[in-house]
Amino acid sequence: MDYPGDELFGRLDLLSEVAASLPASLGSGLQSTIEHLRGQSLWDSRSDYVDTFDNRRRGCLFLTYFSNGETRKRGLALLRIKQVYTKAGLVLTDDQLPDHLCVVLEFAATTDQRAGVKIIVDNRAGLELLRLHLVEIDSPWRGALESVCATLPALKGKDHEAVERLIAQGPEVEEVGLNPYGMPDLAPMPGGT
Fold first, then answer.
1. Bridge partners of residue 173, in order along the sequence
2. Which residue of 15, 75, 133, 145 is 20 to 30 Å from 182, comparing CA positions?
């Protein structure tokens, strides 16, 4: 699910072996993503990746974006995740945001599975919206994300409601400026620009 690079392409055979060893409910989706990557150039994979995840709001890989949007609350959510990592002894580099799906998955796989899964489950509605988006656009990364989702508990009522709300309204937006603080809009001056 991370940006395709030489390292990923060099590991496709190994990843394919791992996917083949998994139960079909987990391995088949992962295998389809691997096969797609094998069938195109690194350049084309990078272009598809940017189009899928960087140019579409619903394709966002930052988990707290869906639950908090671009608000100050997201900063607090990022801090909480970073504190979980720090407590487990993981130090992120300055170029990594703690809520990036790949960072959370790596943390769960290599450091603290229980805490990593909790971060994902706490942001499950956003992950489900991302999955639905990848299905809708028939993304080659769909299979990999479906494999991740297959390892998680089923969506509950509250999560279904959150997904429906995200589909209808999108992530929260924070108004910046004076209007949210009760200041009236200023009318343009007559004859002015």
1. 70
2. 75
Sign of dihedral through CA atoms 151, 154, 159, 165? positive
- Choose among 120, 146, 148, 121: nearest CA to 135: 146
* Distance, first Cα to last Cα, the chain: 49
Q: Which of 98, 162, 108, 153 is nearest to 130 (CA)?
A: 162
CA angle 104, 106, 111 (to 5 degrees): 95
CA distance 85 to 24: 31
Instruction: Give the torsion through C-alpha atoms of 58, 60, 62, 67, to 10 deg.
Output: -10
Instruction: Give, in degrees to the nearest 5, the angle at Cα 155 between 153 and 156.
Output: 110
Residue 66's pLDDT is what? Answer: 86
CA dist 142 and 134 (Å) reads 5
**Residue 118 phi/psi, 5° resolution?**
-60, -40
Tokens of 183: 């200041």
In the DSSP assignment, the letter for residue 57 is G
What digits encode the pLDDT tens for the residues 46-72?
999 999 998 777 889 999 988 888 778
| Angle, CA of 67, 130 and 85, to the nearest 5° | 55
* pLDDT at residue 96, as a whole number: 85
How many residues are given for the chain? 193
